[in-house]
């Protein structure tokens, strides 16, 4: 009986131990499941954070204060018409009738005296510029000769007047003497009013500025030698040399912009009362270029004779994406713009460009309507990209 009781007690103990062990294993398994779920949540959170970080890794931060101080300007991209452009080179020329070349009317030696005659100097019509002295020439002083010829012709004419009345000479002889006198008088008067004790004074026929000084102090000149060129610089001409491959497009050209090398400013003919004068029908004998000529008012400090970059404006293209040239930055031959994402966030965007009129440029890809592009201060935004770190607390609003 005791043996039976002992066996029952032993079985009950063994069963109790097995149940406890199973319960303990269940508890441990539950703890492991909770830990695994926590680790999965943490990994998911870290993955989301990494995705968010990667999403904004190319964002450039520039505070509103710094952007304002740097003159950063942002404009929204709105499609508009943009004319096709032919880019070429050319030259600024003086307009016809706007320039005069002063030549020597007598032979002699040039003397500037105390007068400062330098290129670019402003002058007025009638102001003396230099003196040509004809003294001590081998053939004699031509001014003195003109004076002698005039005085001799005057005496002959006065005597002939009395002789023709007394019919001592014929009318034909008298008319010849009178003609000689009038010629001598005109020659002397044309010279005497420009002659002083030092020689013949040379003055400018027009007001303007000295474009070129063609002689120096002490040079000997003969009659007809160019001395100075004077330009009024009021009306100028723009000559563009266009490649023959663009010849078919010449009839569609209506205006032009040009950029000078000395101030890098882009001038628009439409703002200078410009007009198309003509374009060539053939190229030059030793050239593969066809000339096209414009005329415009010199409202700025444009120098005649300077070589310029020219943007010939042709037929318009509809609904083009256009940005100012100042919006572009370039790195290793690739063009970029900066798009504003929010008040302080910007993004660097690669673009492909098309036509360029000197002030604006066509964007073929990389931008879409509604994008907000930095048009002024792009270089400052580029500098800010060197520290491409999103500050704590900055949130990007899509």
TrEMBL record:
Q: Which residues cross the membrane?
A: none
Q: Note the Gene3D superfamilies from the entry.
A: 2.40.30.170, 2.40.420.20, 2.40.50.100, Helix hairpin bin
Q: Which domain of life is it from?
A: Bacteria
Q: Which UniProt keywords apply?
A: Transport
Question: What InterPro entries does the annotation carry?
Answer: CzcB_C (IPR058649), MFP_Cation_Efflux (IPR051909), RND_pump_MFP (IPR006143), Znf_C2H2_type (IPR013087)
Q: Where is the C2H2-type domain?
A: 8-29
Residue span of region Disordered: 23-58
Position of the signal peptide: none
UniProt family annotation: Belongs to the membrane fusion protein (MFP) (TC 8.A.1) family.
The name this protein carries in UniProt is: Efflux RND transporter periplasmic adaptor subunit
């Amino acid at each position: 009986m005791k043996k039976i009781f002992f066996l029952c007690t032993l079985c009950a103990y063994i069963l109790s131990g097995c149940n406890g062990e199973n319960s303990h294993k269940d508890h441990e398994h539950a703890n492991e499941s909770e830990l695994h779920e926590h680790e999965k949540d943490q990994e998911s959170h870290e993955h989301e954070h990494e995705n968010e970080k990667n999403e904004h890794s190319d964002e450039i931060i520039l505070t509103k204060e710094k952007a304002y101080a740097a003159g950063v300007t942002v404009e929204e991209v709105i499609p508009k018409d943009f004319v096709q452009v032919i880019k070429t080179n050319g030259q600024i020329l003086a307009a016809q009738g706007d320039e005069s070349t002063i030549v020597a009317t007598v032979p002699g030696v040039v003397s500037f005296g105390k007068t400062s005659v330098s290129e670019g100097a402003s002058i007025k019509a009638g102001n003396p510029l230099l003196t040509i002295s004809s003294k001590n020439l081998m053939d004699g002083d031509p001014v003195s000769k003109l004076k002698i010829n005039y005085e001799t012709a005057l005496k002959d004419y006065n005597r002939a007047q009395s002789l023709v009345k007394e019919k001592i000479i014929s009318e034909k002889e008298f008319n010849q003497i009178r003609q000689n006198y009038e010629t001598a008088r005109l020659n002397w008067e044309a010279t005497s009013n420009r002659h002083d004790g030092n020689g013949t004074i040379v003055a400018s026929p027009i007001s303007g500025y000295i474009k070129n000084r063609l002689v120096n102090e002490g040079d000997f000149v003969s009659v007809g030698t160019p001395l100075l060129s004077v330009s009024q610089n009021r009306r100028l001409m723009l000559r563009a040399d266009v490649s023959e491959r663009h010849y078919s497009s010449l009839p569609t050209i209506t205006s032009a912009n040009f950029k000078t090398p000395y101030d890098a400013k882009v001038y628009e003919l439409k703002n200078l009362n410009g007009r198309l004068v003509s374009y060539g029908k053939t190229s030059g004998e030793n050239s593969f270029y066809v000339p096209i000529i414009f005329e415009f008012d010199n409202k700025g400090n444009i120098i005649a004779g300077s070589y310029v970059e020219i943007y010939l404006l042709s037929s318009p293209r509809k609904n083009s994406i256009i940005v100012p040239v100042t919006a572009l930055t370039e790195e290793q031959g690739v063009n970029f713009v900066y798009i504003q994402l929010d008040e302080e966030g910007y993004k660097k965007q690669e673009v492909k460009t098309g036509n360029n009129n000197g002030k604006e440029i066509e964007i073929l890809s990389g931008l879409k309507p509604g994008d907000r592009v930095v048009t002024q201060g792009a270089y400052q935004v580029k500098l800010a990209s060197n520290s491409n770190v999103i500050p704590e607390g900055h949130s990007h609003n899509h």
